[in-house]
Amino acid sequence: QSALTQPASVSGSPGQSITISCTGTSDDVGGYNYVSWYQQHPGKAPKLMIYDVAYRPSGVSNRFSGSKSGNTASLTISGLQAEDEADYYCCSYTSSLAVFGGGTKLTVL
Amino acid sequence: QVQLQESGPGLVKPSGTLSLTCAVSGGSISSTNWWSWVRQPPGRGLEWIGQIYHSGSTNYSPSLKSRVTISVDKSKNQFSLKLTSVTAADTAVYYCARGPFLGALYAFDIWGQGTMITVSS
């Protein structure tokens, strides 16, 4: 059970779109539609942004979207806003367990 | 609205046992959800520790399995974490969370505020 692979950092200007990737294997990301994404601001608990690859919980902006192709899941944030600056983590099901990605720091320029 | 609150000592001595409790309010721990512990070392990413169902069924991270026990107390509507033989590497913010199995969905949808645990003599 290895951590999922995410880029350490991404950046974008306000109004732009960015995509964060989350790469696993056929034993986790590629094998199940059980990928979720979390936003974490400094000193705060994580917040669920996307579940089951592409579904948004009630209250989450539709600027956030998720997708998956093969062993890689992606989180796209459109119309970047200053408040989107945070750490983002993906998580996947694997063999009755859960595994997180290493996290991606999003900087809004 | 379901809320989670972690409690426990903030300081644990090396080789000792870390014990935390997560109180569930606003809902029943006996719902069709699993309950988990997740930790985050300072400046690092999230690490899933393990999960429990109200029946007592558990699953643990392979890397921690030999040292972890998660239990549930339905009468108190809470679940607990014990981590033995701790070292400085176990210093982290520990979160309890609802999930990852939420009926047919898979996610951690509710989190506690987190509690900082430092392992030091």
Structure description:
- The complex is a heterodimer of chains A (109) and B (121).
- In chain A, strands 1, 3, 4, 7, 8 and 9 form a 6-stranded mixed beta sheet that branches. A 3-stranded antiparallel beta sheet of chain A has the order 2-6-5, with no helix packed on it.
- Chain A contains no helices and 9 strands.
- Chain A is globular.
- Chain A is mostly beta strands and 109 residues long.
- Chain B is mainly β.
- Chain B is 0% helix and 53% strand.
- In chain B, the strands form 2 sheets. In chain B, strands 2, 4, 5, 6, 9, 10, 11 and 12 form an 8-stranded mixed beta sheet that branches.
- In chain B, a hairpin with a 4-residue loop joins strand 7 and strand 8 (78-83).
Explain briefly what this protein structure is.
The complex is a heterodimer of chains A (109) and B (121). Chain A has strands at 9-12, 18-23, 35-40, 47-50, 64-69, 72-77, 86-94, 97-100, 104-108. Chain A is mainly β and 109 residues long.
List keywords for this structure.
heterodimer; A: 109 residues; mainly beta; six-stranded mixed sheet; 46% strand; globular; B: 121 residues; four-stranded antiparallel sheet; 0% helix
- Total strands of chain A: the figure is 9
Give the overall shape of chain B, derived from the CA principal axes. Answer: globular
Compute the number of helices of chain A. 0
Structural class of chain B: mainly beta
Low-confidence stretches of chain B: none
Order of helices and strands of chain B: EEEEEEEEEEEE
Classify the helix fraction of chain A into a percent range: under 10%
Number of strands of chain B: 12
Helix content of chain B: under 10%
Structural class of chain A: mainly beta
Oligomeric assembly: heterodimer
For the termini of chain A, the CA-CA separation is 35 Å
Straight-line N-to-C gap of chain B: 39 Å
- Please outline the major beta sheet of chain A: 6 strands, mixed
Give the integer mean of the pLDDT values of chain A.
96
User: How confident is the prediction overall: mean pLDDT of chain B?
Assistant: 96
Tell me the Rg of chain A in angstroms.
13 Å
